[in-house]
Amino acid sequence: MSEKVVYIQTAAGREELSASPGNLGPNLKALLGMFDGHSTVEDLQKKLDKVPLDRLLAALDALVKEGYLEPAASAPAGDDLDFASLLNKPTPVPTAAQRQQAEQATLTSMRALKQSGFFVNIISRSGKPIAPRSGDKYSILIIDGDQANTLIVARELVLAQFDVRSASRDEDILAELAKPPPDLILMDVILPDLVGIEILAKLREHPIFKSVPVIVVTSQAQHDDVVAALVYGANGFMSKPVKPEALLDSVKSVLGIK
Fold first, then answer.
1. Which candidate among 84, 85, 116, 170 keeps its CA 20 to 30 Å from the CA of 128?
2. What region does 203 belong to: left with phi over 0, alpha with psi -120 to 50, or beta?
3. Is 70 in a helix, a strand, or coil?
4. CATH number of the domain that 24 lies in?
5. pTM (two decimals)
């Protein structure tokens, strides 16, 4: 078992963190909560310097075998969150099957988008609540070049007891995406320095962020815009100006807490 590999919480791991009391003892549960999707075993060893390495590795092995943790990637932690290099690579071309599936989902969802201001792709709906990665409150990252809209959305989410992070320019976006992943991303496709659809495509290639739900929020809400978002892996779509009820309904639906 490599000390250089990043381990992430599985769905079962996140459920265990939110369970009370849960199946794990307090020490193993505390250790599980320390795996934030960014730290390696080596990083945790520095924080837990009084714990012998063999005991730490044995505990990690138990969490992996019981399905609470899984390796995010075989690359060292310093490389696996490098979105700058990912963005320099060509955006993958969707397959015919992916495009057809996105077209079908768009046809069945445009009416809901016009009536409610949002829709969630039915195949993206969680059958049961997604546990917060932190084990406490849900964290939402807003990626939007419109600061006025960001403030409105952030205010509604904070009032609804969500933790909120935000970024608008390229350096801020890359900095946020180098942190432990949020539980959900709200992202506009129109950004000052980057193309939102390209970011979405790269997120879906990433070993950690590929499972993070993404709702595209934009003023461009025509048929082709929706298809483009879905074909690159968006879980939902919301039109601007954002309606508070639509915002909370879409977020809760994707997280499975509605």
1. 116
2. alpha
3. strand
4. 1.10.10
5. 0.69
**SS3 category, 248:** helix
Cα separations in angstroms, 32 against 93, 104, 128:
37, 40, 21
Q: 6 near 80, Cβ under 8 Å?
A: yes
Q: What angle do CA 179, 181, 184 make, to 5 degrees?
A: 135
Are 192 and 237 within one domain?
yes
Lowest mean pLDDT across 32-41, 120-129, 142-151, 168-177: 120-129
Q: Token match 């990637």: residue?
A: 73
State CA 224 to chain mean position distance: 24
Looking at residue 244, which CATH number applies to its domain?
3.40.50.2300
- Identify any residues that bridge with 236 across adjacent strands, giving them in sequence order: 120, 215
253 to 31, 164, 166, 213, 247: CA distances (angstroms) = 30, 18, 21, 11, 10
Cis peptide leading into 21, omega within 30 of 0? Answer: yes
The residue length of the chain stands at 258
pLDDT band at 3 (very low <50, low <70, confident <90, very high): low
